[in-house]
Write a structure and sequence with these properties.
By secondary structure, the protein is an alpha+beta fold. The protein has a single domain, classed as Protein of unknown function DUF1054 (BirA Bifunctional Protein, domain 2). 41% of the residues lie in helices and 12% in strands. α2 packs across α7. The mean pLDDT is 95.
């Protein structure tokens, strides 16, 4: 049966948190956070496992409150000029079973008022890993075309090729004629798809999201194969 997990109350809380991003407000509203944000998210994660296993058996839906798929609401402010203590979004990552943190292949859901999106792939891997994937793109342009350029894929997904996610130039060892030279400069291997709040709060959202992730399967599979992990 179709079910909605996230509600207007989820987004109302996040909007208010953005306005009152301080510990006293958080302490007074923590029970509300648990009720309208954390518990629905954990239920979503737990139920989404069935969808996920149909896409790949190697990605994990972990509904633990700490160390699981739901990202913690507390910001790491040690090296940031922004000292606000709480995240004003909900992040959920279904990462690869071999991954230990967000820098692992995975499927991602981001909930934020005015900025909801889904993601797939590998975000900011270490330099050695990024070189492996760029080499795979270089060596197998036909495979990359099927993974990242097919109509089925691009009808839903877009590669994140912003300047912050790309090298200034193609690595010297990869120079030469290539059908996708810009992709040889990628630092992150992420595909994104925008979502509306209406879609996120609809009854059939989990099924629709699973369908989106399924379309990103060949892309994520290419990334995994490039770094010798199973898909």
């Amino acid at each position: 049966m179709a079910k909605n997990y996230f509600t207007r109350g989820t987004f109302d809380f996040l909007r208010e948190l953005e306005t009152h991003n301080e510990k006293p407000w958080w302490d007074a509203n923590k029970d509300r956070y648990i009720r309208v944000v954390r518990e629905p998210a954990l239920e979503f994660i737990n139920d989404f496992e069935t969808h996920l296993k149909k896409i790949s058996p190697h990605f994990v839906a972990d509904s633990r409150t700490v160390g699981g798929s739901l990202m913690r609401p507390y910001r790491d402010v040690r090296f940031s000029a922004d000292k606000t203590p709480y995240k004003t979004n909900v992040g959920i990552q279904f990462r690869h079973e071999r991954g230990k943190d967000v820098h692992a292949p995975g499927f991602y859901l981001h909930l934020e008022p005015g900025s909801c999106f889904a993601g797939a792939g590998l975000w900011k891997p270490e330099a050695k890993v990024a070189r492996q994937i760029r080499q795979a793109i270089h060596d197998d342009p036909a495979g990359w075309r099927k993974a990242a350029k097919s109509k089925r894929f691009i009808d839903t997904w877009r590669l994140d090729v912003g300047e912050e996610e790309t090298l200034k130039r193609i690595p010297k060892e990869l120079e030469g004629e290539h059908p996708y030279p810009d992709d040889l400069r990628l630092k992150s291997f992420i595909a994104g798809a925008k979502l509306t709040q209406t879609k996120v709060t609809s009854d059939g959202f989990s099924t629709e999201l699973a369908g989106m992730f399924r379309k990103a399967g060949p892309f994520t599979s290419f990334v995994c194969a490039s770094i010798d992990v199973a898909f």
